[in-house]
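W.,

You were right to be curious about this one. When I first looked at the sequence I had no strong expectations either way, so I just let the prediction run and decided to look at it fresh. Below is the sequence, 491 residues in total, followed by the output.
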Amino acid sequence: MRSNNQSQSMSLLLALTPVVILIALLAADVIAFGEDSSYGANQIAMLFAAFVSGGIGMLRGLKWEVIRDAISKSIAQTSEAMLILLMIGALSGTWLMAGIIPAFIHYGLQVLNPEIFLFAACLICAVLSLATGSSWGTVGTVGVALIGIGTALGLHPGWVAGAIISGAYFGDKMSPLSDTTNIAPAVAGTDLFTHIRYMMITTIPSLIIALIVFLFAGFGGGASVETLEMSFAEGFGQAVEASFNIHAGLFIAPVVLIALIIKKVPAAPALFIGCLLGAVTAVVFQPEMVRNVAGIGIEEGSYAIAAFTASIQSMALDTAIVTGHSMADELLTSGGMAGMLNTVWLIICAMTFGAVMQATGMLGRITQVLLNGVQSTFGLVARTTGTCLAFNVLTSDQYLAIVIPGNMLKDAYAEQGLAPENLSRTLEDTGTVTSVLIPWNTCGVAQSGILGISTWTYLPYCIFNLVSPIMTLTIAAIGFRIRKLERSTAS
């Protein structure tokens, strides 16, 4: 209750002070570190702003113990999400070694056709990003190749980049392997698979609209089918096929994981089972790759030792598959659990900042102004959408555009009797997908640099990213399948 009293007696200018400081530091980080700013610099900025907020609160009479307890409670709320992220790292490593992710790539590339290039490019990137959970990895590998091919076909680079980014961010948004897909439900207070299933209501129609637009926009081009096929025959596909035994048996683990998701098995154990199945798949179907990952040749030790070593290595640490093809080598890497530690670090710092702002009453004061006059579900969703977009513009970081609005508005959704997945979906429908459309946001900086196309050039053609916020507003306006809190939960 102390934070409520602090909110009522605090000026809006004072409440915004840590936010302004954070924005200034994040802007400096982007200038100094570019796309690498989220690998340490932004975390320091969040902690600095958190201590500024805490200092102001203590000067106003708030005890440190209250702030400390708020931080502990906030981080505890994301403990399951952080465990899931670690399991995702382990799963991506075993699935890579097993050839499961390469198999998705292999079959995905086979649907490419120059007559429907933009449609196919969007679909391929959606499948790959869904399989890997990484929009950045998809854009930075297959996306780079598709840009070159699209240019050869005589297509406008903005259209090609828009199709790539649309597909990549669909997969990033819907994949249980994605960090943002885990962060949003953790902040809102729902579970991962409930969040993903509820997002389908807005995300599937958004993708369908994007695919229809790309289908009609992509007809024509200046290259033949043979030119397109040769572009891939000389590179990616052959490199993957030469390194892995690609066949339908590799999809056993994904099918089992999907079945577990359908059965509503909790995310952490489901991913753990998927991880173990990936290791078994590798041991059975990819013995040569297992020995390569383990660094144990036939003459150096038994296969059992190699299998154990490679499984632990792929789960915990870096795994890099060397095919001799630069694009394939860049995509076929995994950091294991260790690769997720930076995201865990970022979550801890972001939740710390949000907790301190909450404990000092600053978040409450800002929320009072933000929610002034909001009396309907549509109004609340609209304010959430605008807030996420504003934080993407002001803080240059998609994680903050999810975490801070989520913390600010969680209680408001509960007060209106709305289930937390309404909030988590809106956070992703806006916070995740619009980050790449902001030229100074870390996502915009990264994707523009990777593709060699300015953000302003591809922005009008990122159909999925533009439609998603509109779709979430439309669904809220018509009240379609808006999930309410159960009475016992609401009370």
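Here's what jumped out at me. The first helix runs from residue 2 to 9. And, maybe more interesting for your project: Confidence is low (pLDDT under 50) at residues 221-230.

Coffee later to discuss?

I.
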